[in-house]
Amino acid sequence: MNGKRCRKRIMCVFGTRPEAIKKCPLVNEMKKRDGLEVMVAVTAQHRQMLDQVLDTFSVVPDYDLNIMKERQTLFDITLNVLSGIKEVLEKAQPDVVLVHGDTSTTFVTALACFYLKIPVGHVEAGLRTYNIDSPYPEEFNREAVGIVSRYNFAPTPLSRDNLLREGKNPGNIYVTGNTVIDAMQHTVKEDYTHPELEWAGEDRLIFITAHRRENLGEPMHRMFRAIRRVLDEHPDCKAVYPIHMNPAVREAAEAELRGCDRIHIIEPIEVFDCHNFEARSFLCLTDSGGIQEECPAYGVPVLVMRDTTERPEGVEAGTLRLVGTEEESIYQNFTLLLEDKKEYEKMSRAVNPYGDGHACERIADILEGKPYTPWK
Ligand code: UD1
Ligand code: UDP
Predict the structure, then answer these.
(1) φ, ψ for residue 236 (rounded to 5)?
(2) Which of 89, 129, 225, 354 has the most CB atoms around it within 10 Å of its CB?
């Protein structure tokens, strides 16, 4: 047998911005390994926001399903990924398929692998809220992937414990740290500048993102109303909000934030810019998952505009606070952190409960069959 045929064929399938940010460093690590042959298939559940990340990490997909439609429903994503990925998997014949986290691309790909009897590796396994409606549909997606996955790459001991409690085989669980911490190793630079940061100047920079499906509609309007009230009352703060491309998010932002000259709504920024913005922020308000992992590392307090979080490590460490989506709760908590120095200092300690920057190496080692030492 020649060397090439001995290599384990790993196919990475992803479709959205956060999957790409967390998966591309792993793709690049695995490409260095003699024992692995790496293929990349993107569903393009996101198009522009995915391409931005692929460019940043110089990852060129071998397959591209190009499924994104404006205002796509869960049915659209599910049907299009399921029918498209079948052909790709049958053609590529991978030994293992790696999926990431909890998107619909992730769930549907794992389902297709189950139907085709291809082993699944789940990166970022074991995150849970145990509330099937929150986040929606992500809690269902990740629990469902957990039923079929052969390799479970849990980012933290807590996510490992969730899987153990659910009866997963301990031999199939590996605590690796989160690959986003690997991605963060080289992004934040001392001498970074950006016109938006120059605009913020000496004012306190507030960083905002929002997109969750369960928050679309009235909850998102409430979130934006609260943010606007606080900014109107604090002339020493300026907010930068790189807005998601979802038209429903843009409509809510336009309705509630238009005309406020201390909030700049800008197009999605590259991940390199995003990390540098986060690191320089006074405070972040978000309903995003990934940002809950990133900001704690920079000591930037995060008000999580959701009712649940699958990332309790940051809440326990004190840098994340769940504030829900009620206008009054967001308004009160945001105001408190701006006005009460002690409260702010309690939250603004740099901690990193999500990894040590070597998650990709561990995952590649495991897939190559090399000895591995758990992160924790
Ligand atoms: C998806 C994931 C969510 C993840 C989020 C990250 C599901 C069900 N949801 O939610 O778990 O947290 O991505 O951002 O898997 N759009 C564009 N261009 C893009 C991306 C999106 O125009 O590059 C618009 C399209 O109109 C699209 C809409 O945004 O229909 C919604 O995208 P979709 O992937 O369905 O939902 P997200 O909220 O992005
Ligand atoms: N991000 C980015 N550009 C932006 C906004 C966010 O690169 O304009 C990054 C951010 O640093 C994090 C990820 O996107 O790594 C979070 O993605 P998102 O909030 O879309 O999804 P979630 O994490 O909620 O699934």
Answers:
(1) -95, 15
(2) 354
SS3 364: helix
Task: Say whether both 179 and 304 belong to one domain.
Answer: no
Q: Is 47 in the pocket of ligand 1 (CB under 6 A)?
A: yes
**Whole-prediction pTM:** 0.97
Distance 41 CA to ligand 1 centre (A): 18
Ligand nearest to the CA of 291: 2
CA 313, CA 318: separation in Å to the nearest integer?
9
341 and 275 fall within a common domain: yes
Q: In terms of domains, do 318 and 337 share one? A: yes
- Kindly give, in sequence order, each residue whose CB lies less than 8 Å from that of residue 118, ignoring residues fewer than 6 positions away: 89, 94, 95, 96, 97
Question: Is position 40 within any domain?
Answer: yes
Q: Report the domain count for the chain.
A: 2
Q: What is the pLDDT of residues 255-292, one digit of tens each?
A: 999 999 999 999 999 999 999 999 999 999 999 999 99
Q: Give tens-digit pLDDT for 60-71.
A: 999 999 999 999
Enumerate the active-site residues: 102, 124, 138, 211, 213, 244
Measured CA to CA, the distance from residue 183 to residue 275 in angstroms comes to 10
CB neighbourhood size of 13 (10 A): 32
CATH number of domain containing 342: 3.40.50.2000
Side-chain-facing half-sphere of 18: CA atoms under 13 Å? 21
Residue 262 lies in a domain: yes
Residues 177 and 282 in one domain: no
- Segments forming the whole domain that contains residue 256: 195-348
The answer to whether residue 302 sits within a structural domain is: yes
